[in-house]
Structures
1.
Amino acid sequence: MVTQNLSPALCAPASSRPYPKAKPGYGKRSVPDQRPPREDDFAFLPERERHIAGYVDKLPDGAAMDIKSLAKCQPLYGQMAVGSALRALGVAGHLRHVRCLTGEGGQARWVTRTFWSRAARDNEWWTAFLAAEESRPVPQEAAVAVATPPPWASADPAAPRADVPAEGAAPVAVPPPVAVPPPVPAVPQQRTAEPKCDKGASGHPSIAFLTLAQLGRTETRLALSAADCTALEQPAAEWFARGVDADYLTHALTAGLPAAVDSPVGFVRRRLLDKIPPRLPVTPAPAAPGAPVRRLMVECIECGAPGKSEAFRDGLCGPCREPAPDPAAHPAPEAAPAIERDIQAHVNRLREQLKLR
């Protein structure tokens, strides 16, 4: 029997630490058409669930929603209690865990999102919302162009420009530029020019070059020079073309290193060729041929099994929703009396044989 608890939701304790942000594409997602927050939003929940719900409700979109991060940021409950509270909030209709397949820039990856609703929603509402979310096209990320400031640009926008006369002053005659011959170097150049990385259309180093350049800071045994990064840039770019990110590539190159690496460039080249992941096909979205794909699979809040939203009730899959059969309610067939009769008959036969002797 559920007892109504009309006390307001517990306020999450103030913390000086910032909210932990999830990786791009992961984390909290608030459902649309949220009503303004009130003191009695989670009044009918138990005390622990009220506290966790009040804390999650104050988190911004994109905040980390994993159990470890939530338990670390609030001191009252540990990971086991936070996990049980999140499962209870899912059954109550406040959240759903969803796996989403996104495709951006020709790459496909699965991300885990937690959709949050301040008001408790029923199963029909969640099914309609997730169906609309699956059919909604994903907007392309706008490319940000980096403008190069002119040579006369100043850090202070209010500072006067040298090539523009002040207001009311007579124009200043600018003498024509005088051609200055380049100085002759005293020592002839003996080293070859440093190889340049592929900067692409944006004029900046590629993500493959930057990932290789950061290897030495992540693992000192794999420190690469600029020439090494340029030589290995093309094999590393093939990894990104197959849908991996910088974290995946860094982990694949640095995992399980030997005690000493004599040739970092040879070791990294060998791993780039031997451990390259398979190429996964990317299915285009039916709504728009050129738009990134979106696929949704709801996760069971109890066991984490993925599936279609229609197969879930209260956020639970079929096996978790149906309780396990109680052995006391369904006893096994009465085979014990028959076994006892067979044993008794065997003992009687042994006694008769002993009497005959």
2.
Amino acid sequence: MKPNIDWQELDLQREQFNKIGTLYPMEENVTVFMKSVSNVDCYFFTPSKVSSNRTVIYLHGGFYALGGIESHRAFVSHLSFKLNARFIFIEYSLAPESPYPKGVQEVVNVYRELIEKGEGSNLFMMGDGSGCGLLLQTLHYIYKSSISAPEGIIMVSPWLDLNCNGANLFYNEENDKTLTMEKSLKYVSLYTGSDIEKESNPIEIEFDSFPRNFILVGDSELLFENSLGFHESVQAVQPQSELFIYKGAGHVWPLIDIDSEHSQELMDDILEFLEE
């Protein structure tokens, strides 16, 4: 059953979310070009003086219904430059026009084609917010299909529990200025329909194997304790799970201000993770 939505409101929310991408300029030392991979638009970010063979596949957040290259182009360009890596930004289809599992299928198809074309060496995956949920869904398929897994994954302010239940999710509801419980639940219905099936909820996935991973979360965001819980659970299968907490930071804070101390610290921390 498709959820009823106000299309005018959704268009407005998408327009406002995309304006986040204008809060600061792109990194001028990074070039971007678009290329279709498995019939999905992908944007390739390359620093002008890249000296590593690292490639990072990026999955953006936005409640599965908002965002894309317009909202994230500037942020990803700074990541690409600071991390000395090529980034591949996947412009997956959004809900409710393309509800679950369309976006997951597109990301899986892109990932498979990249691997088949020799992109598997020193390959990482990264996401923010709901993009981390897509990341876990993709990783689950990778392990089931015996496709080469990424070297590691990076999750910024991950949103993994679509049910949004549990007392820990309300821990910072009054402190988080970006993410609200009401907004989260509203967009979940656009992505999954009236019911959330177990297979559509990333937090329900059980992994026997998991790549080394890095979770970055602000202690002032709604999902703070949810991130702690996931970190503890994944350590059972991957002891090299790392969690960094940024005091006073909100949901996906570098998207709002790339020059802040917390944002610069985040990029330094990710670089260290990549070079381990």
3.
Amino acid sequence: MNPSHIILVDEQDNEIGTVEKLAAHQRGYLHRAFSVFIVDRKGNMLLQQRAFDKYHSGGLWTNACCSHPNPGEAIEAAAHRRLREEMGFQCPLDKLFEFTYHSHLENGLIEHEYDHVFIGIHEGTIEPDPAEVHSYRYSPIGEISSLVASTPQVFTSWFLLAFPNVARCLTDITKVC
């Protein structure tokens, strides 16, 4: 199967086919995705600023990484793969929750995803792929909450939806819900 294809799903995340990634975003088809959030033991969250030349949401701030599993690839394996590809490191990941969202993007594309949200703890070296990531930083959860409230336009649509639930789950930074 072509890796530029992504998995189409129904509202219960059952696979119903595959389609080319850009076509899914042009037509707003519901497809499987994941978002990885990374924190350190001090209560800071890793944010990445997407590369400016990404085909959508370029230059916006978001969680450590996000993408789609390839057809036939397990969702957790895909999350680990993309974390390594985008941010240049690996760490254990725990699944927090899933949610579905539908969002119109700035360039006429549509995100309609069944998003699996993972979290991990990492305090080591970060070596981001410059084709994926323009910048990155660790920020306190409270500071991110303030920025989301005051300047939501600088964040990706999926980050704005997932972040409040992730922040609620982080009651103890060394043990996630």
4.
Amino acid sequence: MGELPHKRHTMFKKEDGSLYREQVMGTKGFSGIQSILYHHHFPTAVKEASYLKDAIPEYEKQGALQHRHFRTAAYDKKGDAVVDRCYFLGNEDVLIGVVNPIETMNYFYRNGDGDELFFVHHGTGKIETMFGEITYEPGDYILIPIGTIYRVIPEDDQNRWLVIEATSAITTPRRYRNEYGQLMEHSPFCERDIRGPERLTTYDEKGEFEVVTKARGSLHRHVFDHHPLDVVGWDGYLYPWKFNISDFEPITGRIHQPPPVHQTFEGNNFVVCSFVPRLYDYHPESIPAPYFHSNVDSDEVLYYVEGNFMSRKGIEEASITLHPSGIPHGPHPGKIEGSIGKKETLELAVMIDTFRPLKTIEQAKEYEDEAYMKSWVTE
């Protein structure tokens, strides 16, 4: 996007003869994916640096191993997309929470610890980034790569997001990519469904601009001497993009398909799956509801978006359930029998499976349905 020199690492001059400033932004040293950006100003021109606070949430003490249900819709605090996040679960690889961003950020933000993935449950708006602007609407997954400077500008007061913060890259599933990185024919989505930045707006302004940086588990304040979105052009493979859950094409079969067919993203030690409206299994004796299964090496988290989730009772919009490793889980009483003969489901949900145990964040208990573990017991 924007203006680029013909050859990388060569002089790229402004009209007055001075140089644009080239920045290589890449992962895994110089062996991962990268992009090259051209700035009006030095991206290192920071007038002030200060420590803000520890950003590692407080986890509860170890309690009984049990299934848990958090009614996140009860979290009604509204604010901006960063400061007012409410975290519910986390471990060394990922943080999971929600946010109700209705205020425009009066500062910029970058996460230097890993990629961020947002799922827009409700609301519209735009995200201004150093790579350009991305508008969003309900159903959008928005991927913000590590180190990207951005701010969120909501358009209405209905914004509600699921937030997934990784300490790694978040990518499309490897098994859906060929050796060249292209999504293959059996993938439930393809490159045509992916939307990158829509326009590149460049700000050539001097002044004081605040960028909050998350790094090493803490928040830091950097004051730039210029507008941080001063990029005139860039190219490469590292950039923010979005994918709408309505473009996910479900894989179905004659009998119940396992959760990996719903996988949409993967990070280090976790995956993200999309449960979307789909036809049920078509074997004449199939049971559409999932079988009971034991997560012997992963925790399962579900965020319920809309519809009547076929295997659960007592779940509401924006509920989060945690089914931890070590004990089996499965459909509520009556849900197996009730699914027989049904032709389709209209459920919509986001699932996160982690391969290291999740811990519950202390503030999450305020929104917990403490009776959930006993909801499989029939009188």
